Amino acid sequence: MRSFPPYRAQVVAEIPVTTRAERERALAAAGYNAFNLPARMVTIDLLTDSGTGAVSTAQEAAAAAADRSYAGSDSFFRFREALSELTHYPHILPVHQGRAAERVLFTSVLRAGQISVSNTHFDTTRANVELLGAEARDLPCAEFGDLDSLEPFKGNINLDRLEQLLTGPEADRVGMVLVTITNNGGGGQPVSMANLAAASRLARAHGVPIFLDAARFAENAWLVVQREEGYAGKTPRAVAEEAFGLVDGAVASLKKDGISPMGAFIGLTDPELAQRCETNLIATEGFRTYGGLGAHDLDRVAKGLHEVLDPHYLEARADEAARLAQAANDAGVDIVQPPGIHALYLNAGRLLPHLPASRFPGHSLACELYLEGGIRCVELGSLYLGTLDENNELVTPAPFELVRIALPRRVYSQGHYEYVAEVLGDIAKNPDRVPGYRIVDAPKILRHFNLRMAPVS
Ligand code: F0G
């Protein structure tokens, strides 16, 4: 690998250094839930790649010159132009963040009792479908079931099952198809252009609208260029444009590949649907030329959307993830293969075989990363996806016990990731001493954000 990041640090922020005893106290006070930890107690924050990217000098210069007019601000026109060039959608609405874009679009598209079909709905996406009384149904491809296989597009939607649904007895209930690129809930794996095109043909043949959840559109495009036949040598921008062109519209959080602290958009081809979304947006988020966003973030997005498609940037970021994946493997920790870009998914179930699913091995590994090294990350296993009984005991485990370590854009360097790999290696030397956890208290919806846990010795 001969890539290097095409930027250098110009302003830096100090990160907290803590002792093990301080971390033990902080985690206990947080109810063993990383979402409750104060950030000042976290040394390396790999909880999310969302809104955590480092902004460029060009973004900050544009933000300083932003136009805060309520209606028709220049910042909005720059935002819209960047997104029109990329998506070619005639209707672009700014929204403050991805889940708000989902709410506005879904309210205008779905009715109670209908089904939203996806490769995998992200958690807030699922919640926004369910809050409307609709059903969120995930149809991930079969290849995702083998965490170790090197299949290049394990984020794909299962086309056979999609067709069965669209031609079967429930066909009338299908309200929309939503393809998440890359598939964050499914190991951060990419979706191929062939799969997206086929899903789109199926949806259109049955009169069902199809949208992208395009939060990581640039990273998906990069993996298509690397992995899909017929795409080598294309620019990530050309691939991303093609992806947007295959569907009826998109929602996207711009806190990821917009490299902005805040922001999202809804892009649509259908003027009538766009009109309904705009009315909802104005009533609930903000006027159509800011949608709940500060003008500075409209401008940060306009720049960020160009910076994120720089092939040198994408290559360096993908290589950074691949190097960390290799270092984790060398340290004795398996990850979901092949590594994607925005996050690595550690196979905690395999590393901690002494812990049954009911003791939440993914959560145990996430806690251990914090206690051992001040590293914050999040479980994606039975705690997040399993079903619980009324006493909060696990009834149905998740298919996998994973931990996601997300990689903020342009924030950490090789030295930080070497440290992460060393901490992983130290845990992997004595996995038996990692304790399991039990749930003390858990809310019914979006429980992982608010639950409290306790270690079981
Ligand atoms: N869709 C996907 C695929 C996401 O990953 C996220 C957020 C959203 C929608 C919602 O966007 O946060 O701007 O409201 N993912 C973050 C994460 C939170 O950590 O994966 P948002």
UniProtKB/TrEMBL annotation:
GO MF, any single term: lyase activity
Reported cofactor(s): pyridoxal 5'-phosphate
PANTHER family noted in UniProt: BETA-ELIMINATING LYASE-LIKE PROTEIN-RELATED, TRYPTOPHANASE
Family: Belongs to the beta-eliminating lyase family.
UniProt-listed GO biological process terms: amino acid metabolic process; antibiotic biosynthetic process
InterPro entries per UniProt: ArAA_b-elim_lyase/Thr_aldolase (IPR001597), PyrdxlP-dep_Trfase (IPR015424), PyrdxlP-dep_Trfase_major (IPR015421), PyrdxlP-dep_Trfase_small (IPR015422)
Provenance organism: Amycolatopsis saalfeldensis
Coiled-coil parts of chain: none
Entries under Gene3D superfamilies matching the protein: Aspartate Aminotransferase, domain 1 (3.90.1150.10), Type I PLP-dependent aspartate aminotransferase-like (Major domain) (3.40.640.10)
Protein name: Tryptophanase
UniProt keywords, alphabetically: Antibiotic biosynthesis, Pyridoxal phosphate
